[in-house]
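I am still getting used to backbone structure tokens and would like to learn alongside you. Please make up or recall a protein chain and show it to me in full. Would you write everything just below, so we can both look at the same thing?
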Amino acid sequence: MTERAFACLAMLIAAGSTPLTAHVSRLTPQDTTAGKKVYVKWCAGCHGDGGAGDGTAAAHMLPRPRNFTGAIYKIRTTASGQLPTDADLMRAIDEGLPGSAMPAWKGRLSDAERRDVAAYIKTFSSFFADTSQHVALLKFSGEPSGGTGANALKTGRQFYDSIGCRKCHGDQGRGDGPSAPTLKDDAGFPIFAADLHQSWRFRGGGSAADIYRRLRTGLDGTPMPSFSDLIDQKFLTDEQLWRLAQYVRSLSPPEPPEVRDVIHAPQIAGTVPVSPDDSVWRRVSRYWFPLVGQVVRKARWFAPAVTGVWVQAVHDGHTLALRVSWDDRTQSPDSAWLGFEQRVLETVAGDDSGPPPPKAEPWPDQLAVQFPRHLPQGMERPYFLMGSETDPVYQWRWTSRPRRSVAGLARGIERFDTLPEAPAGQASFDHGEWRLVFTRALATPDTANEVQLEAGRAIPVAFFGWDGSSGEHGSRMAVSTWYFLALDRPTPPGVFISPVLAMLVTLGLGLVVVRRAQRRGRGGPGR
């Protein structure tokens, strides 16, 4: 990859984490000359000098950056085929587009800079200067009440089926429908059907109202159509479209998951569950950990299909059970997705200096859980990206074909030395979701290579994921940083009994004091 491309990507990372210095100014008219300066500095690296979505970093992104020259915009409040309003453009600039490389610029650029760059973006297409183009907002109704009730969700599900949502998004909404492997945008680039279980990644917002507006407007430039015409044709009513939006919203958690640093594993009575579908897991807290593309070592991967994992853990004082679940559109290897995999490999560049895009192959899905070999005394941990030659890490690795689990020492991405003893692993796949349980004894004979899991200690842990049907294998993977696993100890009975005893003793002493005072009162001078 060229230095300029790295600079563009580094700029995006900085924009997502560190506020830019923005001067305070009062509202002024839009200035395209000033907007061009902002665009060249912050936008051209992805969208290109001429706004065609062909910046230096664009080849490493999926979805690709917006091509402004055609004036086709996904997120609008106008009818399908119409231009967006200025407010639509500002909303995308201010809030960014979740699930893509487009960050939010509000708070990072001044109000004037954001308005100016929006005005400059419009100069890339003559459509904005065409006076015959009449931009008009669609009229959106208010959300009907009762959207979380059983009847409303049943109605929403009925229309999810009847208008064909499941063809792309799948029966359970994880983007695994029968048409999903064939999808591409108007530019011919492969496109994933949205995973409706991750509303925090929806481009136009994750509320029921946001989803309703997308159903009304469609996502121009993609296979996602507008359904406003079905209301005009009286195939369904506006309220029924709202019920569909509310049903889609119900598939995701009520709130976006909060990333927490520590996985708490409670100690349970009896043996730990070995099946990923054991009822015990319904009573155990889930923790969400985001994964990002591996961009440190060649071949780099900028568009991982596995965007995060849900993790749960329990122990019984002798054995740990660790459950990892993640959304995956395919149970790889899947020959039906080989064509899609090939288009992804041809679309997403790894390195400018690397070999030509590889051919699609039937790779399996894979997951790895990583620990240090020994629990650290302080905060020092091995290198997060699979350790190093001199400081290896201990990993559990699972693969979908052949279906097996192994343990070993990773000495960097290129080297993995299998150990004799492996954790037990059971996995199930259902409608676009993998569920996997690793089980292993807390203490093992191999104290030199296998981490000894101790209750009450902070155990560093990290995760790696590969989607075979996206061509992911080797260094083409999704990675996390280090987090922690904590094996909780059961609360001793004395913790609960002691306060009760103290309260009873205090109450008893109080009664003695009161009784003595009453006796003194009866024996006083007044008797």
The chain has four domains: 3-129, 150-250, 262-487, 491-527.
